[in-house]
Design goal:
Chain B: InterPro entries: BP-dependent_transpt_permease, MetI-like, MetI-like_sf, OppC_N. The complex is a heterotrimer of chains A (344), B (303) and C (336). Chain A is mainly alpha-helical. Chain A is built from 14 helices and no strands. Classes of the chains: A mainly alpha (344), B mainly alpha (303), C alpha/beta (336).
């Protein structure tokens, strides 16, 4: 067989793509880190300098105060801008994002670590659900495209795609917690239950996660249904579908040909969708008082906890970079044309 | 509206006929689905609201201390807020801020995006790849978190400042679209043909490229307006910016975080009114974009 | 698998296919009767819009909406009337009994699967028990057409050239031993050398496997190289049909005459080549009564305006023309 002949360039093409993504991602992380450094530096009233001075006033020695401030923000308050920048970047390389002010004594890294799960799990669940739902309804909308139902599905897609996520979230809250209170209004879990692997606690977790996950799902569902509908319509017009029917292939097989070819291009927007949901998590967590990264970011701003703010911003960015790479790898794994390095 | 620009391939009278035919086509497309007409009416309605609304109501809206969070009535169709101010009046007067910001954002987004996209597609080579890297970065950096972080250094509360920030963060999509459009026109020999005729670059861009891309750009502009409306309302809703002006985002914030709209039904109309306004505006713009798609996409028009 | 040595006969009778348009249902194929003699290649030529592709799809009862088969029958020996088949019976007929080869320029292969996997899909769809033998058959067929079978089966569509894809298409139409094969524009969009290779392959495979073959094309020169019989279509009607040497040598219908005059390769002298005046009709411009060709006809008579000419037989071929009784004015040329 000729497999071995082509195997090598395929591997190389994949490696090149991944390397490109990692490179671009690193640049992005660096840019975002630089932005957050300068913002922390430029905040009116200079919190870093202020912290240093207030520690001095409390009777610390300059040396102690300097070190205490450095622990908080990741760089020394004295010294030139460049020294501060290098210090900040150096701490980042050691995954040291400084210490939180609002939760004294706790490192930013551990705060983010415990918040991340409350964002990542609902975002992934929402992405998966909306993908499945949107793809199915997209096929349906494409097949029924000349009828009223198809029009309605497409319009619902456009509308949900166009409406901001907080509108969806607020409407859901208004309906399901105020008008018809069947779901909890906020929080991640009922405090009455003992955390652990017991039915009550897990049930409460799920009960509280319903509205956030549904909001995530509806927020990206519109995009999927619209994209899937137009892909299916395009593929239906392709000759190979008619050819497959004229070769007498079973309906199930023809449908698989159709579905796979229509779904494939969706993987290019998967990363975009996940990125959008990460951004949307700010609103969703604020509305549902859900202790994820978005809420952490908003709270850090209102409590002027700038080290936490910079760290959260950075971690959200990294999440998006990783989502990008994963989505592209998925795409590469499925499309033979990319795999063999034909398309770029 | 922004759809007046046509490729000027003809001159004099024939151009006038073209334009007439074009408007007739627009009319036909609008008539085919009445929902599109509704879209135009909704958006025009909001525009009127933004321009005239604040003139109809007094500068300081009247308060009624006896009717805090009043339920909807004939006098107050959406009830009143925590100070007894009419919610409908708040929505109408708040529209100006929201729309002004949207307009400013759209203008900056489109101007910047078109400029960068055209330049990259036209020059190609090193400029192109550098600008596209920048565009990728602009697209990839999460916009909302960046806005939040920026809000700590810069309290951009006036509509124009807000529009400037949103525009500076949002040009990536337009730039990429314009570039790919430029490249495809180039591929079709459009630019080379014009060059061959000895036309100066300024002419090629101004009179050949831009007009053929106008529909594209106009559609992006509408989409930018919606993006800007969401972002600003969202920022005020989160409460990271000081409440300087009356706008829908402030209303949402007060309804949810002070009015307890999430737990008590009495404050619900106060929450729903701005939401309804946003939904309606979205619906209007979605319907218009749909109509524009059909007007400018010959493949759809043929059928 | 045993192979029936007797090729089936195909009898198309009074076939009418209509397309739904804003102006109502218009006929793309109108009362066409055509018999494909067992073991022969019949060519169908016509300009675009003449209804030839619709005719081809009718053989598999596969006219696509907004089209609809309104009347008629397509009888194939051993199968009965294809137009009465539906559901699973129809599906099993397609591919297994009647093979269909698509135009080369169009992509008739799933871009995401290797040819081999698509071959297996085909085998499973038609309940082939011995898939190994199917693969061996496919390799042999591809080898027969000058390709490296193993390599092709392991390839994706984008790794093959246009001529290779066309040969894969032929392989997929034949590998289940279909005995009626329809080729729709098999050489369009291929370069000249590949064209003649494909035509030679069609001829050779046809003879080896004792098939009944229908070749649809707008290229009279191409069809002249392979066909035994020739049917000329115009405006949804078969206007002339007979042995190819007769039809091309002494065309009876004015349209056939014009068509041949327009092709220097056939009329022999480029200075005599003359384009047919006027434009081919579309669904909407077809006259409702009378002869469909009269607008462009140099022999039109009064009767042509009102009466549609019936098909009559003149020395071995059928012609639908009021003026066909008269001798052809075309300069004779020896047809080899």
């Amino acid at each position: 067989m000729t497999k071995s002949v082509r195997e090598r360039p395929r591997g190389a093409a994949v490696a090149r793509r991944v390397a490109g993504h990692v490179g671009r991602g690193l640049v992005m992380i660096w840019v975002v880190a630089t932005i957050s450094f300068f913002i922390i530096r430029e905040i009116p009233g200079d919190p870093v300098q202020g912290m240093y001075e207030s520690l001095l006033q409390k009777g610390m020695s300059p040396d102690q105060a300097e070190r205490a401030t450095a622990v908080l923000y990741g760089f020394l308050p004295t010294g030139s801008l460049w020294d501060q920048y290098v210090g900040y970047m150096g701490s980042l390389l050691h995954f040291d994002l400084g210490r939180s002010l609002s939760t004294p004594g706790v490192s930013v890294t551990s705060l983010i670590g415990s918040a991340a799960q409350w964002t990542v799990v609902p975002v992934l669940a929402g992405t998966l659900l909306s993908f499945l739902l949107g793809v199915t309804m997209g096929v349906y909308a494409a097949i029924k495209r000349s009828g009223k139902l198809g029009d309605l599905l497409a319009l619902s897609g456009s509308l949900l795609h166009g409406v901001p996520v907080y509108v969806i979230g607020l409407l859901l809250v208004a309906i399901f917690t105020t008008l018809w209170p069947i779901l909890p209004a906020g929080g991640p879990v009922d405090v009455a239950f003992v955390p652990g692997f017991n039915a009550g606690y897990i049930g409460s977790l799920i009960h509280h996660a319903v509205l956030p996950v549904v909001t995530y799902t509806l927020a990206s569902y519109g995009g999927w249904i619209l994209a899937m509908k137009s892909n299916v319509v395009a593929v239906l017009g392709d000759d190979f579908i008619l050819a497959a029917e004229l070769r007498g292939l079973k309906r199930g097989i023809v449908f698989r040909y159709l579905a796979r070819n229509a779904i494939l291009p969706l993987f290019t927007i998967l990363a975009l969708s996940i990125g959008m949901l990460f951004g949307g998590s700010i609103f969703i967590e604020e509305i549902f008082n859900y202790p994820g990264l978005g809420l952490l970011l908003v709270n850090s701003i209102s409590t002027r906890d700038y080290a936490l703010m910079g760290g959260t911003f950075l971690v959200i960015t990294i999440g998006i970079v990783v989502a990008n790479i994963v989505a592209d790898l998925l795409y590469t794994a499925i499309d033979p044309r990319v795999r063999s390095g034909e398309a770029s | 509206m922004t759809v007046t620009v046509m490729p000027d391939m003809a001159t004099g009278t024939s151009r006038a006929t073209l334009r007439r035919n074009f408007w007739r086509g627009v009319w036909r497309v609008l008539c085919r689905k009445p929902s599109r007409m509704a879209g135009v009416i909704i958006v025009l309605g909001f525009a009127v609201m933004g321009v005239i609304g604040p003139l109809v109501y007094p500068a300081n809206l009247p308060r009624d201390d006896n009717a805090l969070y009043a339920s909807p009535s004939l006098q107050h169709p959406f009830g009143t807020d925590f100070e007894g101010t009419d919610v409908l009046a708040l929505v109408v007067t708040g529209a100006r801020y929201v729309l002004l910001t949207g307009l400013a954002t759209a203008l900056i987004t489109v101007a910047l995006g078109t400029l960068i996209g055209l330049f990259a597609g036209f020059r190609r080579g090193g400029w192109d790849s550098a600008l596209m890297r920048l565009t990728d970065l602009n697209l990839a950096i999460p916009g909302l978190p960046l806005l939040l972080v920026l809000s700590t250094v810069w309290k951009f509360t006036s509509p124009l400042e807000m529009g400037l920030v949103l525009g500076l963060l949002g040009w990536g999509g337009v730039a990429r679209a314009v570039r790919s459009q430029t490249l495809s026109l180039r591929e079709r020999g459009f630019i080379e043909a014009a060059r061959g005729l000895g036309l100066p670059t300024r002419h090629i861009i101004g009179r050949e490229l831009l007009p053929s891309m106008a529909p594209y750009i106009a559609m992006n502009m509408l989409i930018a307006v919606t993006g800007a409306v969401y972002a600003q309302v969202g920022l005020f809703f989160l409460g990271v910016l000081p409440f300087d002006a009356n706008n829908w985002g402030v209303m949402l914030n007060l309804a949810v975080f002070s009015g307890g709209a999430l737990t008590t039904p009495s404050a619900l109309p106060y929450l729903l009114a701005p939401l309804l306004a946003i939904l309606l505006l979205t619906l209007g713009i979605v319907l218009i974009v749909d109509a524009m798609d059909e007007i400018f996409n010959p493949r759809l028009r043929e059928e | 698998m045993s192979r029936d040595s007797a090729a089936p006969e195909v009898r198309i009778r009074d076939l009418t296919v209509v397309y739904k348009t804003p102006a109502g249902e218009l006929p793309a194929v109108s009362r066409v009767s055509l018999t494909l003699t067992p073991g022969t290649i019949t060519g169908v030529v016509g300009e675009s819009g003449s209804g030839k592709s619709t005719l081809a799809l009718s053989l598999l009862n596969a006219v696509q909406p907004p089209g609809r088969i309104a009347a008629g029958s397509v009888e194939i020996d051993g199968l009965g009337d294809v137009l009465r088949l539906d559901g699973e019976d129809l599906r099993r007929t397609r591919g297994r009994k009647v093979g269909y080869v698509f135009q080369a320029a169009q992509n008739s292969l799933n871009p995401l699967k290797t040819i081999g996997k698509q071959l297996l899909d085909l085998g499973r769809s038609h309940d082939v028990e011995d898939l190994r033998a199917l693969v061996a058959d496919a390799k042999a067929l591809l080898g027969r057409m000058g390709l490296d079978g193993a390599r092709v089966l392991d390839s994706h569509q984008h790794e093959l050239s246009g001529g290779m894809r066309q040969r894969v298409g032929i392989m997929l139409a034949l590998v289940l031993n279909a005995q009626v094969v329809v080729l729709d524009e098999p050489t369009t969009a291929l370069d000249m050398i590949t064209q003649s290779t494909i035509l030679r392959i069609i001829r050779e495979v046809h003879e080896e496997r004792a098939l009944t073959t229908l070749v649809i094309t707008h290229d009279v020169g191409a069809v002249a190289e392979v066909a035994d019989d020739l049917a000329v279509m115009y405006g949804g009607r078969v206007v002339e049909h007979g042995p190819i040497a007769e039809v091309l040598g002494t065309p009876r219908h004015p349209y056939t005459q014009g068509l041949i005059r327009a092709i220097p390769r056939l009329s022999g002298d480029i200075s005599l080549a003359r384009a047919l005046p006027g434009r081919p009709p579309t669904l909407g411009t077809l006259p409702a009564a009378g002869c469909v060709f009269r607008e462009r006809c140099e022999k039109r008579m009064e009767i042509c305006e009102t009466v549609e000419p019936a098909t009559a037989t003149y020395d071995g071929r059928s012609v639908a023309c009021h003026a066909a009784g008269r001798p052809a004015p075309v300069k004779r040329r020896e047809y080899a």
